[in-house]
Design brief:
single chain; mainly alpha
Length: 191
């Protein structure tokens, strides 16, 4: 309760060492206004265990510049509930390194709106394991430009069920190399 009493303007003046010293109880008690006031350096100083305790409203309060400053390990430590809480603007702010660090459980939790919001650089940063975790709904949400930018190995990693879920526009967007790399099961799954 005492941490919540710190004025937002004063909270923004805390050093990164002071932010790092916050306990998990302190982190869970932060107000959304205090989180909005944090600088990128302060956000990067929050321990992963503390980040995991932030609720959906606190996660949504993280500014995009602050999110970009988070380490890949911090992003990978977020719960699936926290990942789902990210706005599409926050998802677009993730760096390619942060996207590549997402666990398969985190990737599987992404909403279709979040998948559709991925930039081409983010989509190409997805690992084959992450793409294998995509649901058919998530696969349908991949923007055609993003799909066309994937490597052949990434497209193959989507699997047969997801190949069958591709929209006509997505199939048209596949490159010659991607089509040539499709497995027989993926080709058979196409409608």
């Amino acid at each position: 309760a005492q941490v919540r009493a710190i004025e937002t303007a004063d909270f923004a003046l805390l050093s990164v060492e002071q932010i790092a010293a916050l306990t998990t109880a302190h982190a869970a008690a932060l107000t959304t206004q205090q989180i909005v006031a944090l600088t990128p350096a302060q956000i990067a100083a929050i321990e992963t265990a503390d980040l995991r305790l932030l609720d959906a409203n606190q996660i949504k309060a993280i500014q995009t510049a602050d999110l970009e400053a988070m380490t890949a390990a911090q992003v990978a430590s977020l719960t699936t509930t926290q990942i789902v809480a990210l706005t599409t603007g926050q998802v677009q702010a993730l760096t390619s390194e942060q996207v590549a660090a997402l666990t398969t459980a985190q990737v599987a939790a992404l909403t279709t709106a979040q998948v559709a919001a991925l930039t081409t650089a983010q989509a190409t940063a997805l690992t084959t394991s992450q793409l294998a975790a995509f649901s058919t709904e998530q696969t349908e949400a991949i923007e055609t430009a993003d799909l066309a930018a994937l490597t052949s190995a990434q497209v193959v990693a989507l699997g047969a069920a997801n190949a069958g879920a591709l929209t006509t526009a997505q199939v048209v967007a596949l490159t010659t190399a991607q089509v040539a790399a499709l497995t027989t099961a993926q080709v058979a799954a196409l409608s």
